[in-house]
Amino acid sequence: MPNSLNIAKERISQISDIATSYVQADKSLFDHFIHSYYQPLHQETAKDISNADLAGMALHHFTLLKAYDRSHPQLAILNPIAEEQHFHSSHTVIQIVAYDRPFLVDTLLMSLEEQGIDVHRTYHIIVNVERDENGAITKVESAQESGTSHMSLIHCEISYQDNDELAALKQMLLAKVDTLDVVVDDWQQIRAKLTDIKAELATKTLPEVFYSQQEIQAFLDWVLDDHFIFLGYREYRLEDGHRIEVNSVGNIANQDDRSDLDLFSIGNSGLGLLRGGSEDQLSKSFDELPSNLKRLLTAPQVLVLSKSSRVSPVHRPVYMDFLGIHKFDDNGKLIGEHRFIGLFTAQAYQLSVQQIPLLREKSNKIMAMAKLPRDGHAYHKMMHIINTLPRDDLFQASIEDLYPTVLGISQLQDKKSLRLFCPYRSLPAFCFLLGLYSA
Length: 439
Fold this sequence. Notes:
- By secondary structure, the protein is of the alpha+beta class.
- The protein is 41% helix and 21% strand.
- Strand 10 and strand 11 (319-328) form a beta hairpin.
- Helix 1 (9-20) packs across helix 4 (51-67), helix 6 (104-114) crosses helix 7 and helix 12 (359-370) crosses helix 15.
- The two termini are 54 Å apart.
């Protein structure tokens, strides 16, 4: 059944007639391109744009596609003039041709927003391009799925920019694409790192400080099941880590002063946004901490979930999520850390707590502390409160911090009262953690 909300084929043919009149060669190829290019265009969007302008937009984009050398993106920013580009717009126009990448459109739009630039219209299609042995385009057709073997064509109209500002804007957008490429290129390697770490953890006896070993394994499986967008990884070594010994119940067996501990990032271990040099480097932020905070940071936890102090440069402009996994030797000694940064997916924030490993264990322990009759009114009310708490707080706060918060909220229900809850009892230390985890 044809999609009646998209632009009519008859109008696309009219646009193609205008557009092909501007070219001397490849008329049949260009006509096919026009039909692929505008087939997904919504008629509500197209009704205020003339056929001549739509023809000129497609022609300009087709020219960029032909110029694409399959290495670097083709990006043009212009204030179009009908006599030169065959179309007119009161807005500045950005057109991009690049191989299809995850989060390409999101990253470009958030980059413009960061610059305070209003976006008036965005049009994006993914096409499959066939070329001959000389690299010349022989066929263009709409792609049925996203993938790096296909091409992304993005047309974006933004608030008018002066001509002398266009070069700097182009450089900024290309730099963002380069950053995105760093993430995309290392994505699978970062996932593979976590898979290997998960397998290694399964062979060790770990301190059950906050989470059971079974829940840790389940959580890492959940993370790998497309609930986390991997943006970076780096491995760290704790120098003199033999001083920190952990017994079977997670208590530190040796309380020696840790002011002389050093944390090193391991050379060539960085991936994605945490790519680094080939040499081991001392973590200056850790080195400058007082001994009591070093003690806090090196308390064996297996998993450390927090927020980075850095905003993600791709996909969503929010503070990145931090996943630290402590490293232990065969004798249970803390010797370092695996550090991942990224973003929990939108689905991760929408799931019930009982569907998320670690959080379901926390939830069950909180309910056990409450000692409420199962399936009673008070029981369901407290479960509802836990499910409505911000997921970031649930991940980062301990059960000892969460329980009084949940209980306090339950006491406020049906009362016209106002209370402030802070689920982190060690807020100064938490702030230090944020700074350290940005490294």
